[in-house]
Amino acid sequence: MKAKVAGIVFIIGSLYYLMAEAISATFFNASLVNTYVFHTISELGIPDVNSPLFWVMNSAFIIIGLTLIFGNFYRFKDYIIKNRTLFYIFTLITSIGVIIVALIHGGNPLTSGYHTLGAVMAILGGNILLVLISQSMKKFENYQKITLILGLIGLIAFWIMFFNMQSIYMPVLERLSVYTLIIWSFATGSFLVTKKI
Asked: What is the spatial distance between Cα 158 and Cα 69, in angstroms, rounded to a whole number?
């Protein structure tokens, strides 16, 4: 029962994130394609005329952060055989980071440093968490392989983005490094509901 509850939370959290971003992007002050390609996720959460539904995007950050804390601490922790302390630490780093992104917006010189810190905690911390999870379970089977691949893709995208911050395509790399965690949340929820891990 605990596995199904956690699984449903993971699935709902990940789907809500994707839908909230799509809705926010639809009403952003640019075409939908341009928003996804040339504007960062953080821009969708800045309360200004460009993003009238900024609160929708920020709610998604908070919900995915809470989803990760609940799902990992309520049930998924039971699957972690090794490195459990690191698992808890990186779960909190990732979750707190993404909630910081929701509460402290970019674009303001007084707060942008805290926003950037939150983003790094969420993206870098989240993908390190995935790699850690893949190496901390009892067996290395399909689920663990998927988790490892997602984590590695996210880390590679993050580092390419880090060294190409001025590129007009930086938002694409940002999304790629973020979506790995969202995809993992959905996949984990599906595995938990169907009892495949």
From this structure: 22
14 neighbors 185 (Cβ within 8 angstroms): yes
Which of 173, 85, 193, 192 has the alpha carbon at shortest distance from 129? 85
DSSP 53-93: THHHHHHHHHHHHHHHHHHHHHTGGGGB-S-HHHHHHHHHH
Phi, psi of 137 (to 5 degrees): -100, 170
Q: Taking 80 as the threshold, does the pLDDT of residue 175 lie above it? A: yes
What pLDDT was estimated at residue 134?
Answer: 97
Distance CA 32, CA 35 (A): 5
Structure tokens at 140: 């290395």
Res. 163 pLDDT band, cuts 50 70 90:
very high
Partners of 80 in the β-ladder: 137
Under the banding of pLDDT at 50, 70 and 90, the label for residue 1 is: confident
